[in-house]
Structures are given as C-alpha cells and as structure tokens.
UniProtKB/TrEMBL annotation:
Cofactor(s) this protein requires: pyridoxal 5'-phosphate
Physiological role: Acts on the D-isomers of alanine, leucine, aspartate, glutamate, aminobutyrate, norvaline and asparagine. The enzyme transfers an amino group from a substrate D-amino acid to the pyridoxal phosphate cofactor to form pyridoxamine and an alpha-keto acid in the first half-reaction.
Statement: the UniProt record of this protein carries the keyword Kinase: no
Catalytic activity: D-alanine + 2-oxoglutarate = D-glutamate + pyruvate
PANTHER family: AMINO-ACID AMINOTRANSFERASE, D-ALANINE AMINOTRANSFERASE
Gene: dat
Protein name from the UniProt record: D-alanine aminotransferase
Origin organism lineage: Bacteria, Bacillati, Bacillota, Bacilli, Bacillales
Keywords: Aminotransferase, Pyridoxal phosphate, Transferase
Similarity comment text for this entry: Belongs to the class-IV pyridoxal-phosphate-dependent aminotransferase family.
UniProt cross-references to Pfam families, sorted A to Z: Aminotran_4
Gene3D superfamilies on file: 3.30.470.10, D-amino Acid Aminotransferase, subunit A, domain 2 (3.20.10.10)
Organism: Aliibacillus thermotolerans
EC number(s) from the headed UniProt entry: 2.6.1.21
CDD domains tied to this protein: D-AAT_like
Length: 276
C-alpha cells in the first residue's frame, strides 16, 4: 500500500514518523475522512473548508492549498486503485520537544492513506442499535481534532453493551454519536442538534439538510431531548462511511425500540440518487 507522508507518496513500510510529533504526544492535530465513490471524491470542497476551519480554530497554519489537498486525495486513490472507499487525511501541528506551549514556527506534518471500503448496505437496510450515555467530551466538539479519546471510550462502551454506536447526551440533550450525527423524526419533522460547539458539523449531516430542503421535509436544527424519543418516532445516524443508517434500538440511559421509517427511507433514496 502507498501512503502520503509530508510531501510525497511512499510505500507504507517506508513511512517513518518523527518521534516528537505533537500529534503523538498531545493529539495536537486535525483530520478529515473523504469518501470515494466510483473513483471520485465526494464533497471535496466541504471537507477542505472544514479542515481549514478546524486548523484555524486551533491556530495551526494551513500549509496545504485546496489544490494540494485535492491532489493528495487523487494520487492516493489512483495509486492504491480505490474504487469505493475513503481517504484519511491528517495534519498535526508539527515536531518539537514535548512541551504544552507550542512554537509558532512549526511545519505541520501531513499523513494520509486510502482504503477500499464497501457501503454498509446491511446496516442501511436493517438499522443499528445505540447505547445512550453522557457526553463527557470537551466543549469544542466542532473542531475535527485527532484527540478522540472520549469518542473512542464511548464507542467501545457501546460495543461492550452490544450496540454499534453511542448516543451521547449532555444532561437530557442529545448531541451526536461517537463518530456520527444523530437525527430524530417526530410527527413528520426532522430534528438534529444545531452545528455549534457541542457537535461536529458532519458533511453527511450537511448533505441530509440539503436533501430535506430539496424534498420539502421540514427540518429543524434544534436540539432534542432523550425524553422526546418515543417508539413512534424514526431516528437515523449519518457519517461519511455509513451514509444514512436507521436506529432500531436504544439502550443505556433510555430504552426505546424503533422502526426504520418512511422519512429515513426517502432520505436514503435521495442520498443514493444524488450525483457522486
Ligand atoms: N460526529 C463525529 C464526532 C464524528 O467523528 C463524525 C465523523 O467521523 C461525524 C459526526 C460525521 O461526520 P461526517 O459526516 O463528516 O463523516
């Protein structure tokens, strides 16, 4: 396999990372995951913009132009012959002897790889279960940082309880999943947490909001509560790798059984029909 390190593509076995990378010691960096559909990157500009914003919010200077970002993704997917899959792109603040205070003249370290990955049709059809638990992350979840320990622990807690994903809530307010955004459909209205500091503004979330508009489904970027979720509602989760997946069961802080519903199915169909 070929991977990207700094400014070139090399064999994975030749990719050696600097010992004092701040990403390794502090999780001091940002990343993106970009879907490849039939050899074509999906929503490239949106990913680029989010990366630029994430970097800027933690004062990492963007050393990669949009063209360079795009070239890296194209070269990786070409060389590795990715048809359907994704590219992972990471940028850390740089290399210096471990200290909390960062120097302002560091060169960010770029690493990226491509992976073939099928669309999870089974999950999309049958749905997944969630484990509801308190969201203990920091208050800047809008930044796509590589510091993901709370997300990692949440996902693993969910798996330990036989669920595929976590449903995170702050008090009673549902924020998002460990690596997904969460939507509730109640009385024909779609609700999802607003894109503030409590969630990552998912690219798939943004696509779903567009699709809802195009199809005239009422959608409110308004937080909803654990108490709002009832058996008659629909829920679904979204992410770059999952697309749109229905939720069929929630356990943990609450216990609810749900069915994949008509709005979810229509949004899934609209997502498939969208040009990729
Ligand atoms: N929320 C979190 C915390 C995530 O890590 C992710 C993706 O990894 C998402 C939401 C979904 O974002 P996207 O649709 O851009 O993949």
């Amino acid at each position: 396999r070929y991977v990207w390190l700094h400014d070139k593509m090399i064999k994975e076995e030749d990719a050696h990372l600097p010992f004092f990378d701040r990403g390794y010691y502090f999780g001091d960096g940002v990343y993106e995951v970009i879907r490849i559909y039939s050899g074509k990157p999906f929503m490239l500009t949106a990913h680029w913009k989010r990366l630029e914003r994430s970097a800027s919010e933690i004062n990492i200077e963007m050393t990669v132009t949009k063209q360079a970002f795009s070239d890296i993704i194209f070269q990786l997917k070409e060389k590795n012959e990715i048809h359907n899959g994704y590219v992972y792109f990471q940028m850390t603040r740089g290399i210096e002897e471990r200290q909390h205070l960062y120097s302002n003249d560091l060169s960010p370290v770029i690493t990226a790889f491509a992976k073939e990955s099928d669309i999870p049709l089974d999950k999309q059809k049958h749905g997944v279960s969630l484990w509801a638990m308190e969201d203990i992350r920091w208050l800047r979840c809008d930044i796509k940082t590589i510091h993901l320990l709370a997300n990692v622990m949440a996902k693993n807690t969910a798996f330990t309880h036989g669920a595929e994903e976590a449903l995170l809530h702050r008090g009673n307010t549902v924020t998002e999943g460990a690596s997904t955004n969460i939507f509730l459909v109640k009385n024909g209205v779609i609700y999802t947490h607003p894109a503030d500091n409590y969630i990552l503004n998912g690219i798939t979330r943004q696509v779903v909001i567009e699709l809802a508009k195009e199809n005239r489904f009422p959608l409110k970027e308004t937080p909803f509560s654990l108490i709002d979720i009832s058996e008659n509602d629909e829920m679904f989760i979204t992410s770059t790798t999952l697309e749109i997946v229905p939720v069929t069961c929630i356990r943990g802080s609450i216990e609810v059984t749900l069915q994949p519903g008509i709005v979810t199915r229509k949004l899934q169909a609209a997502f498939q029909a969208r040009e990729k």
